[in-house]
Amino acid sequence: MSNVYTYQQIAEHNSVEDIWIVVDGKVYDVTKFLDEHPGGDEIILDLAGQDASEPFRDIGHSEEALKVLNGLCVGRVDINSKPIEVETPETSTQGSHTTGGEGSGKLVIACAIVFFIVAYYFANNL
Ligand code: HEM
């Protein structure tokens, strides 16, 4: 595999539709493998467009995993390029903005006010 890519070029492949990762100086297109990954897609998405050598090794992937990885190779990293910060893609489970906490806080205050009004009413009428 003779294609050589800089970290800048690799970082551009960081969306769910097009995702590359680096393992030990080689570049892998994991787009199609994402759904099949036994460790889940999120874990790979977090490393989209970046060097995943350490996390990949830390998991202790099997020989079988290494074979799959080999089949996904699209080139190698330009040795003169330096790793850069990459924004990881949003997934459907992230980024949901709930206002439930704030809403229930207001409800507690409203209940407390009602409680004190009722208590005041009874205290003055008994
Ligand atoms: C393209 C790269 C990758 C390939 C081809 C791959 C392949 C596999 C395969 C085949 C397994 C099943 C167990 C085994 O055979 O070792 C597996 C499990 C796993 N992988 Fe990956 N993996 C990749 C990248 C990663 C990365 C970057 C991480 C994260 C940091 C990761 C985390 C995991 C975890 C946590 C499991 C364990 C799942 C379990 O046993 O519950 N993988 N992977």
Automatic annotation (TrEMBL):
Domain of life: Eukaryota
Keyword Transport: yes
Signal peptide: none
InterPro entries: Cyt_B5-like_heme/steroid-bd, Cyt_B5-like_heme/steroid_sf, Cyt_B5_heme-BS, Cytochrome_b5
Molecular functions (GO terms): heme binding; metal ion binding
SMART domains: Cyt-b5
Any one GO cellular component localisation term in the record: endoplasmic reticulum membrane
Domain (Cytochrome b5 heme-binding) ranges: 2-78
Primary localization class, coarse: endoplasmic reticulum
Membrane topology term: Single-pass membrane protein
The protein, known as: Cytochrome b5 heme-binding domain-containing protein
The organism's taxonomic lineage, starting at the top: Eukaryota, Fungi, Dikarya, Ascomycota, Saccharomycotina
